[in-house]
User: Fold these one by one.
Assistant:
Number 1:
Amino acid sequence: MPYWYIYCAIFKIKTNKIMEDNKVKSSIIIGLAVIITAFILGMAFKNRNENLDSISVIGLGTKDFVSDEILWSGSFTTKSFDIKESYNKMISDQKIVSEFFVKKGFNPNEFSFGAVQFNKRFREVRIENGENAYNTKYEQVFDGYEATQTISFSAKKNPDLMKRIEAVSSKTSELINSGIELSSNSIQYTYSDLPSLKQSLIEKATKDASERANKIVNTADGDLGKLKNASMGVFQITGQGSTEDDSYGGNFDTYSKNKTARITVRLEYELE
């Protein structure tokens, strides 16, 4: 038998074997693909049914309250080319300011002065070149020292002191008669027991969400199942009657004495 004939026969046998092996591998791959696809579709169908068999509701908890803490401050300045003279003038003005508030009914321990802050002042001077109008220069020239001091008032759960601070904050212009201009900052109002307030709002919001879910299900002749998930929204504090939109990071109003606190709670229940 010729060698070439034997060679062709052997080549044909190997080729057939390779083709059979490839068919087996292809069958295995197709089988695995079918199994994986069936698993993915099954999980998707399961999750779809789970979503259809649940209800999600949002409850709201709100409360109006009055701030029981107050903070108010102001500042006054003196100016001089000599730093010692500026400081001595500040000490003199501090005494006048202190006496002013004592006469308004405050005890010296009901307000406090901050540390004196010194800053160098400069003014801009224009230097013109007579020969070249386009060669104008500007220089910073020392213009003396400015000393600044703050005075602060605060009260916590003290309605009488709060009223006196509110009243005197609008009368500081009277110090102008003594040669002192006191710059007044806005009054800040806060609340001393925010943790308890927040807890009570969470309870209200949770109860509201639960009642909403029950009403919806009962109206549809269904039955409410187990609680699947619960999440809390952002804690918001705004002035009463405010139309301010909710902020992603939460609002915390400090300028209104009468405030409204609110929080939302989302509950998701299974349906039976």
Note: The two ends are 82 Å apart (CA to CA).
Number 2:
Amino acid sequence: MSRRVKRPLAKSCAPGDRPKGARPFRGSPAERPPGHQMSSLHTKRSRSFELMLQSIALLATLISVHPALAETVEVAPGVQVTKRTYSAPSNEQPFFGFAAKNSAQQAADESFVTAVVQAVGTREKAFDETSKRGWRAISSGNVAEAAQRFNQAFLLAPEQSGVYHGFAAVAQIRFSDTDFADELFRIARKQPNPLKTLNADYGRVLLIAKRPREAQPVLEQAVKDTPDFGDAWTNLAWARLQNGDRAAACAAVDEAARQHPSSNANADLTVLRSSAQCK
């Protein structure tokens, strides 16, 4: 009588190590090993998570490349801006940080507008005085106060160019947000009653953003707007030099020196003369 010989259980093999003729496990769900379904489910979940992360990354890229995809807010009739907020009190951010205001805050805004208009006589004068205080604060280095003043100006006349010009300065100086500053400068150029220094300030920001080709035409206009503003001529010299026109850069350097530039710009003139090899 022949004896049955117990065969040892086969060890699991990697696909390349399978014995000839061996086939991968294709049994019904009921026949599969207990851990098989859980492993498959885990793989599916991991894949779904990866796809979700890829989607989020793609959306972030699209928003950075196409700002129009970011959330925008209408801040004045026909004026849309990208909603940008920062780590600072709301009244020290452009447009009050886009914070929703309760009824008490809205009433306080109305009281402010009424009081300041009564004090100076007209809404236009109130806007001018408030804006001037904002620029004085910028000049003294108090950007937090400047933002507060420009927010007050925004309450008085949200359509005015000076509002967006002032907020652009705040975005650049305090929050180092060149993209938002660029957006606000572009709006400021379209709005009524721009300051003569608008193009000079915008051109400077474009230089900071390392965009000299865009900066040069803006600064060419700036020196027409303010021919006696030495700093505008200095920045135009930088733009011309960076765009490869040394002779024109030297001409701007000479004009800047005649217009009594600021101490910072004066220091730049020495570097410019050397870099452009001015005679």
Note: The chain has eleven helices and two strands.
Number 3:
Amino acid sequence: MTLSTRSSSLTAVVTLALLAASPLAGGPSHAQPPAAEGWQAPRTASGKPDFSGFWTQPVHVNPTGRGATTFTKDKLPPFVPGGDALFYKPHVGDPFVDEPRAFCMPSGFPSAFFGPYPVQIVQNDDWLVMTTEFERATRLIPLDGRAHREGIEPTYYGDSVGHWEGDTLVIDSRNFKPWTLDDYYYVNPQEHRMHSDAFRTIERLSRVDADTLSYELTVEDSKIFVSSWTENLEMTLRPEWEKVGLYEFVCQENNRCPGGDCGKK
């Protein structure tokens, strides 16, 4: 374990990883990913697969490198009329607008959980807690199959509820604030991708062997796209990270040096 693989520097924001997904309600059914022959997943007291541990962030299966994962451009569905104007927000030269995370604003989901930072999962029969080292962003996900809450304020990380389909945990998240979708604007500053308040995600988590978690993320945004889209991702178990845990990540909202550049005051 080195600082290069466990960086909590704010400059690593520029390599945050983002993703895509698998069909939402009404789409094709999903098959359980096959587990390694002869391997048995660890289980909770109730017999459900146990995802607890320290994991890498989700990445594309068989990635060519450790760089950021952004949504695959070729997989983006067509826009609804006017959807492109909501999806793309060009940079204006104001860092508070172009990169609000430099002022310690929340990264939001999914982007916070797809940067090059460890993710810790703690699970029991009733809850799954998922925390990324980046901004120490934490999601509390009930596993009892409850419905989404009504009449609550939209948030950067959405309202998440979970249920089991066999050995696959399905997490449905909605009620998001409009916010940045991914970090593709570091590739092309004219394509700062956003999502609307109609944003919804479905995550499907399954253990396939002792070290690998299959992770699918489905994205739907009916104000921007005509349909949802899907990518297959995976997370790798890193038990050696448990010795030191997640590094402390402190960022104050009144930051005056975005990106570490104090320059003019």
Note: Confidence is low (pLDDT under 50) at residues 1-5, 7-23.
Number 4:
Amino acid sequence: MGLDTLREISKSISKSMNSNKLAAKGFITILTGLYSFQDCVHFLASVRKFHREPIIVLIDRVPQILYPLLQVFGNVILKPAPSHENPVLASRLAKLALYRESLFEKTIYMDCDICLLSPIDEVFDFLDGVDLLVTEDVQPAIAKAANLLRVKQDILSTLQSVGLPLNENSIQYNSGFIAFTKSSKTQELFTNFKKYFEMVVAHQNVLFLKDQGAFAAAVESVKPKMTTLSPVYNYLDKWKEIYAIDKPIKVMHCTYPYRPQYAKNVTRSLFTRIVDRTAKIFLPNQLNNPWRLK
């Protein structure tokens, strides 16, 4: 691909970014660093298999020469994500910016290690009359959310001690799937999300660099009009033993190397096979990402 083609892609991206008119609906994901590049390619392939809506990718620390591999799926808008040397922190900061960066009246955010297994048009319809759609984490009770703490001590009191307005009834939602509308209540939610995540960052001596405690606190304080969806919309294959699901899975949440073959088949094509083979040579091994240990 020549320089002229890349310049045209850049102009197209800039035009999309500068548009003030909101589209009716669309998708958004985050790609911060090369560790998740292969996942993102398969994410885009899965969305494009079932949907034609625009897809925003908040992107950081990915060489521009690789951008066309994302743009090939069509109607993909690349927007700069908040930059940070730690790609995990950058991805968290990008999640805080979802409301601001969305160009849509109705937005479905999904982590880029997600794969659609079927169309999810109904999720856009579910947003009629509500501000927010979420799915519960595999451990929904915030008082038992040991995944948020670096230390072994009482979970709820520790979260409260750093300033998060949580209680014994607070729910931990999995922030890998969030659908929202453009509304004053949703804007307030993301403003509080940012405030509470800053508390998490300020207390890294006791808390992991995760955003779900801050998101739960934002929901608790703002109380948006919301609906909790079935786990079929955010199915974590790693924890499949704990689910009791009698309906087809629609959204598989699992990094590509660990993805079951039937999910890999959804995005299988000549293009993705070439990406997968070259990824083994040129991309860092996402399963050994050292930033996830910080």
Note: The mean pLDDT is 92.
